[in-house]
TrEMBL record:
GO terms for molecular function: ATP binding; ATP hydrolysis activity. Residues 286-312 are annotated as: Disordered. It comes from the Bacteria. This is Branched-chain amino acid transport system ATP-binding protein.
Length: 312
């Protein structure tokens, strides 16, 4: 009963933080854990990310959605040190994170998972979990020669790994090679391994991609549980039912920019979001001039094709 009360309190606190906020891109949050300003990433002449300002509220589950090619994963890569932004700045807990390498970003408390899982297939599940722990004494060559320096820490790491594997229902797989796991089990392993660093912010890139329906509800429950454990969650997802189910707030990207923010119940009916997914004027009839222009273009293309055939 106490656990249910705590859960409802966490959820209520997250929703209260968003109450009365404007549904505008970059709207300020009461207690942001992550603040992003003017982040740009270009690939040649293509601007993949151009985010002016966005804030992620502490203690909430925020969904990052948008059409394919909107720049969501590229944006994740900038923030977590897996790619380098061409411009802009961002802070995590007030600390500037520009140019910080990925392992130091994780050490600071901001971890991520990937759309395509990164489990080390030739290591066991337990070995994968142990690798997730930070600042292990045994990683130093000279200390590794003296077990008394690192044995106690390794035992503590193993104990935490056992607890997480039990929570994620992977305890029976602890000695199996990670490569033998199903797609859904690898997602669970990656999420569990990310928690080995005891993060404050967990960033999930399409956690449901490739997961069979039998494991979907389990994964949903684990994502919700992250918030109940006091963590902040930012996730990329295309499954709108999942977004409605677990998110407290939704940020929408299109063509590299944030175009809308709001609660899940209202964001789906936002005209800016509908246009981003379906195209402008998707629900409006074509005018007479537009119909005539389309007909003329089609006739010109057909005539050109006929002429090309006759000249062969």
């Amino acid at each position: 009963m106490r656990a249910e009360t705590t859960t409802s309190e966490r959820k209520a606190a997250a929703l209260a933080a968003f109450k009365d906020l404007a549904h505008d891109p970059g709207v300020p949050k009461p207690d942001p854990i992550l603040v992003v300003d003017d982040v740009v990433r270009r690939f040649g002449g293509l601007t993949a990310v151009d985010v002016k300002h966005v804030e992620i509220q502490r203690g909430s589950i925020t969904a990052l959605i948008g059409p394919n090619g909107a720049g969501k994963t590229t944006f994740f890569n900038q923030l977590t040190g897996f790619d380098t932004a061409d411009a802009g700045s961002w802070t995590f807990n007030g600390r500037r994170m520009n140019g910080v390498p990925a392992h130091k970003v994780a050490r600071a408390g901001m971890v991520r998972t990937f759309q395509l899982t990164k489990a080390l297939s030739r290591l066991t599940v337990m070995e994968n979990m142990r690798l997730g722990a930070q600042q292990q004494k045994g990683e130093n060559f000279w200390r590794a020669l003296v077990p008394s320096f690192w044995r106690g820490q390794e035992d503590a790491i193993t104990e935490r790994a056992e607890d997480l594997l039990t929570r994620f229902k992977l305890a029976a797989k602890r000695d199996d090679f990670a490569g033998s796991l199903s797609g859904g089990q690898r997602k669970l392993l990656e999420m569990a391994r990310a928690l080995m660093v005891e993060p404050e912010l967990v960033m999930l890139d399409e956690p449901m991609a490739g997961v069979n329906p039998a494991l979907t509800q389990s994964l949903l429950g684990h994502v919700k549980d992250l918030r109940e454990q006091g963590m902040t969650v930012l996730f990329v997802e295309h499954d709108m039912d999942m977004v409605r189910d677990i998110s407290d707030w939704v940020v929408v990207m299109a063509q590299g920019s944030v175009i809308a923010e709001g609660p899940p119940d209202t964001i789906m009916s936002d005209e800016r979001v509908i246009d981003a997914y379906l195209g402008a004027h998707h629900d409006a009839p074509l005018s007479e001039s537009e119909l005539t222009e389309q007909l003329q273009e089609a006739e010109a293309a057909l005539e050109a094709e006929i002429e090309e055939e006759t000249q062969k």
